[in-house]
Amino acid sequence: KSKQHSKMKASKGGAGGRSSKGRNYRDSQFALKRRAEKRDLEEQRLEEEIAAQRKIDEASYWQPVDKADRKHKLKLYTQQKKAMEAHQNKVLNQAAYAEEFY
């Protein structure tokens, strides 16, 4: 230890102490976690969208396309996907709420 350290008084709380890592710290950690989850969900959604589009392109490559039918199928698919995403978000929110308050 240097001499400077031995002469300094021990800290009594204050900034940077254990007490300052209170609600703000937890809130920021929670926000970071939520942002990361949101980013991951967005990336996953984009990957699924690209895969779905590729599947549609491959399926319709050699056959004549009934545009109305294709549009209808795509509409149903997007509705199902939105419902699933809404459900996932609900589950994530409930889990995050439970983590924060219990």
From TrEMBL:
Region named Disordered: 1-42
Domain of life of the organism encoding this protein: Eukaryota
Stretches with biased composition (Basic residues): 1-10
The protein, known as: Uncharacterized protein
